[in-house]
Amino acid sequence: MTPTKKGEATHIKIERRRRLAFDDSDVAHVAGGQHKGLVINKQTADEENDLGKPQLQLSFTCFLIDQKTGEHIVEMRKLKFWYVEGTEYLDQVTRAYDFFKELIKPDDLPRDYVGFIKKCMKQMQGSQYKQIKKVDLSMQQLNKDNAPLSPDIYLALFSPDIYLVPSFPLQICIWPLFPP
Question: Superkingdom, according to UniProt (predicted)?
């Protein structure tokens, strides 16, 4: 996992890499115990192992409330997917949808940013997502002029500091628009 900042958005790059591909000077933390195998890299300016355009992208809106200030914040989140070579188009769409569905499952919806990022990382470790080579999670707060006023359909999850209300409809962008 490598965090980066691009303009107003925070990007979390989560990818499958062999241990030999790591430069130890770039590593901030190596997890152990139940999280063994997860490596957190130091934040980078805009380092990119360019895999080209993502093959699939899902975006959704979160309505956040800061419990300390009561401020309402609307955030756009995007999940961009790259797949291992040879992954069939239908498998790409299915894996991305399954990944998203598991990520926002109401009974264990992450309660905060750290939980959301950790759940993405843990899902990438799962064998059911081995066709996914890389996921780029983008989180950007929308200014009040561009933000929707309320979610169409929503789930509320409360925590001591903030609660998360993902909204739908889900916007799905698929590249290429037609299967190869």
Answer: Eukaryota
Is a pLDDT exceeding 50 seen at residue 175? no
Indicate the DSSP class of residue 93: H
Give the pLDDT score at 177: 38
Dist CA 67 CA 125 (whole Å): 32
- Tokens 């999670």 correspond to 137
Both structure tokens of 16: 């499958």
Strands 9-15 and 2-6: antiparallel
Q: Would you kindly state where each structural domain of the chain is located, as residue ranges?
A: 2-174
Q: Which two tokens stand for residue 42?
A: 């130091």
Contacts of 129 (CB under 8 A, 6+ apart): 95, 98, 99, 123
Estimate to the nearest angstrom the gap between the alpha carbon of 169 and the chain centroid.
Answer: 18
CB atoms within 10 A of CB 164: 23
CA dist 81 and 51 (Å) reads 10
Local structure of residue 118 (DSSP, 8 states): H
Is 70 exceeded by the pLDDT of residue 55? yes
Q: pLDDT over 90 for what percent of the chain?
A: 9
Cis amide leading into 54 (omega within 30): no
CA dist 21 and 4 (Å) reads: 19
